[in-house]
């Protein structure tokens, strides 16, 4: 498996650390209700198809990236820097 | 008073040679890690050009030479090699002296890339990883900086604490290349 780091280009999966669904980019606002926090902390979708995950280019450039991939076909569809996705 | 003498990280371990591939230690002199503050990249590059005559490198590239140059070193990081960090760089970036922090080797020979390919996942084919290209990657599970400095010459940097492990891993890789015979 190879991931397209927006800074380094296509690199081997072993250079990356996997941090799961990119939910951390959608942190509830201050004052959000308990239901929103409950969903943020505990609930995850388990999609068959396109999903967005956070990966850390740990032994590469050190960037956090959001990778879009397909859980059914295993195709890697693209990646953007997390700092840009969070804007 | 103790009489302290400087020691290079690898001076008792190198040089070594196998399969026509030579590994020797390199003294890069002063090493300064520079990490620009947010939105200060352009100002930093201008300051570097004014003080050193070298611009900030593109990702995966180096400017200048390994005698005196700037090596891309990761997202928003670059290493100044062989120069004093002059010109008010601190106004635009976090600046850290790491001169004693790295063990550095040069690997040279027709089969150097073959040996390195046993240790790193980076695509080292000549048309992909060209001269003056650099990568942060792993080398036998060590965090490393890998730069192609010549047709069959590579510069490898790992943390000084991994000096022995680096030589050990390179030795095994070279043995493996030797065992495969010539192509």
From TrEMBL, chain A:
Q: Which GO terms describe its molecular function?
A: sarcosine oxidase activity
What the entry lists under InterPro entries is as follows:
SoxD, SoxD_sf
GO biological process, any = tetrahydrofolate metabolic process
Which organism does this record belong to?
Roseovarius atlanticus
Pfam families annotated for this entry? SoxD (PF04267)
Q: What is this protein called?
A: Sarcosine oxidase subunit delta
Superkingdom classification of source: Bacteria
From TrEMBL, chain B:
Annotated SUPFAM superfamilies? Folate-binding domain (SSF103025)
Question: Could you identify this protein by its name?
Answer: Sarcosine oxidase subunit gamma
Source species of the chain: Roseovarius atlanticus
């Amino acid at each position: 498996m190879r991931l397209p780091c927006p800074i380094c280009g296509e690199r081997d999966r072993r250079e990356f650390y996997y941090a799961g669904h990119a939910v951390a980019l959608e942190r509830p606002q201050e004052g959000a209700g308990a239901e929103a926090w409950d969903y943020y902390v505990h609930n995850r979708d388990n999609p068959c198809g396109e999903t967005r995950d956070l990966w850390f280019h740990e032994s590469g450039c050190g960037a956090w990236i959001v990778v879009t991939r397909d859980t059914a076909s295993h195709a890697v569809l693209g990646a953007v820097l997390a700092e840009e996705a969070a804007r | 008073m103790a009489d302290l003498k400087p020691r290079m990280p690898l001076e008792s371990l190198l040089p070594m040679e196998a399969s026509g591939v030579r590994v020797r230690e390199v003294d890069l002199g002063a090493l300064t890690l520079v990490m620009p503050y947010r939105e200060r990249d352009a100002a930093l590059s201008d300051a570097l050009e004014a003080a050193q005559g070298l611009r900030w490198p593109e990702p995966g590239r180096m400017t200048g030479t390994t005698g005196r140059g700037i090596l891309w070193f990761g997202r928003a990081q670059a290493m100044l090699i062989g120069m004093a960090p002059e010109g008010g760089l601190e106004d635009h970036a976090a600046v850290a002296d790491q001169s004693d922090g790295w063990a550095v080797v040069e690997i040279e020979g027709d089969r150097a890339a073959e040996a390195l390919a046993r240790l790193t996942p980076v695509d080292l084919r000549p048309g992909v990883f060209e001269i003056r290209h650099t990568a942060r990657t792993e080398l036998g599970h060590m965090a490393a900086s890998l730069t192609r400095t010549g047709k069959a010459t590579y510069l490898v940097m790992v943390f000084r604490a991994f000096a022995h492990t680096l030589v050990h891993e390179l030795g095994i890789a070279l043995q493996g290349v030797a065992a495969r015979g010539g192509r």
